């Protein structure tokens, strides 16, 4: 990477979130020094006027759009209007103002939930919009699909280089450990940790334990994001056929929720039993990404699940630690 490229002024939207903070770490490791960030209090990305003023006043060269409202099954079911509204507003404001102020390079981060509930496994990029979505997170998925199509549309009409990466289920330092609104790994870590310290005899897990999920350590996701952004446009376009501007990011391997619970139990050191509550929703039966396109670009995940869980639990116990990528 030429030195002048390292001098680019890069805006990371959502830098306090799990993904955004990992992207900042990845950029710092690669020698990018001029990184622009704003907290929600400083810049409300759902506010069109604030976003317009921000882009007009800053000399941004590239954007990583990692800001989003995210949550697990319970949060998606409880706050569907917030999930679709806030994510749509963030995407439309940032992508439009980036174009309006002459920013040619942007990376949009989506989610594997964009694919149909019963998509052929593993899910390839061309499965998008080929069937009904998973009902439990449909509003969020529709917002993320809109983000992909925004990038595609601006590229088609204005010749911009707006790229999209679709990560599988992410976990790692900076995750949300809320007892009801978190994703499965942070929820399990908290539950097992509290049960361990309370000397509980069992931990109850939502669902049957049979659905299969793929999990990617967040620093691997950040590494892939910067890798994709640094690719020459010809190399990126080679793997994103016409009308398909997004790339899957994952490990290409999945495990059952039961196996995941056992792994988290071992990581935390909980000695009690696992009980599965089959009355609670399972979500989609399987969500495995086809990551052959990204592998063809030269990138594969590096962090094993057990290693990632160990680092994540260490960070959960010591949130001030930033040593998350060793």
Compact description:
The chain has 326 residues and is of the alpha/beta class. The protein has helices at residues 3-6, 18-29, 48-57, 73-78, 80-100, 138-158, 184-197, 218-230, 233-238, 257-268, 292-297, 305-317, and strands spanning 10-13, 35-36, 62-65, 105-109, 161-167, 169-171, 202-206, 212-213, 215-217, 246-249, 255-256, 273-277, 286-287. The chain has a domain at 3-174 and 214-252 and 288-303: 3-Layer(aba) Sandwich (Rossmann fold).
Describe this structure in words.
With 326 residues, this protein is an alpha/beta fold. It has a domain at 3-174 and 214-252 and 288-303: 3-Layer(aba) Sandwich (Rossmann fold). Helix content is 42%, strand content 15%. The chain has helices spanning 3-6, 18-29, 48-57, 73-78, 80-100, 138-158, 184-197, 218-230, 233-238, 257-268, 292-297, 305-317; strands at 10-13, 35-36, 62-65, 105-109, 161-167, 169-171, 202-206, 212-213, 215-217, 246-249, 255-256, 273-277, 286-287. One of its GO terms (molecular function) is isomerase activity. Keywords: Isomerase, Multifunctional enzyme, NADP, Oxidoreductase. This is GDP-L-fucose synthase. The active site is at residue 140.
């Amino acid at each position: 990477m030429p030195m002048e490229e390292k001098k680019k002024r890069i805006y990371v939207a959502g830098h306090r979130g799990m993904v955004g903070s990992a992207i900042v770490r990845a950029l710092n490791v690669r020698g990018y020094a001029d990184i622009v960030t704003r907290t929600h209090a400083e810049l409300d990305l759902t506010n069109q006027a604030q976003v317009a003023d921000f882009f007009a006043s800053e000399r941004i060269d590239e954007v990583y759009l990692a800001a989003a409202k995210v949550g697990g099954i319970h949060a998606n079911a409880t706050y569907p209007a917030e999930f679709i509204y806030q994510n749509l507003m963030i995407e439309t404001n940032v992508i439009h103002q980036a174009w309006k102020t002459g920013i040619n390079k942007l990376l949009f981060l989506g989610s594997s939930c964009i694919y149909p509930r019963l998509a052929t496994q593993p899910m390839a990029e061309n499965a998008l919009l080929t069937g009904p979505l998973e009902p439990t997170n449909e509003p969020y998925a529709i917002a993320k699909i809109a983000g992909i199509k925004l990038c595609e549309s601006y590229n088609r009409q204005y010749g911009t280089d707006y790229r999209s990466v679709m990560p599988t289920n992410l976990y790692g330092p900076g995750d949300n450990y809320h007892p009801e609104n978190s994703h499965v790994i942070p929820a399990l870590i908290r539950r097992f940790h509290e049960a361990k310290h309370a000397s509980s005899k069992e931990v109850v897990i939502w669902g049957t334990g049979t659905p299969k999920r793929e999990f990617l350590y967040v620093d691997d996701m950040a590494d892939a994001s910067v890798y994709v952004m640094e690719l020459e446009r010809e190399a990126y376009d080679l793997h994103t056929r016409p009308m398909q501007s997004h790339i899957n990011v994952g490990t290409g391997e999945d495990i059952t929720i039961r196996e995941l619970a056992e792994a988290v139990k071992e990581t935390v050191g909980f000695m009690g039993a696992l009980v599965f509550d089959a009355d609670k929703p399972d979500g989609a039966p399987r969500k495995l990404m086809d990551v052959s396109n990204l592998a063809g670009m030269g990138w594969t995940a590096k962090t094993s699940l057990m290693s990632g869980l160990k680092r994540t639990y260490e960070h959960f116990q010591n949130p001030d630690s930033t040593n998350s990528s060793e």
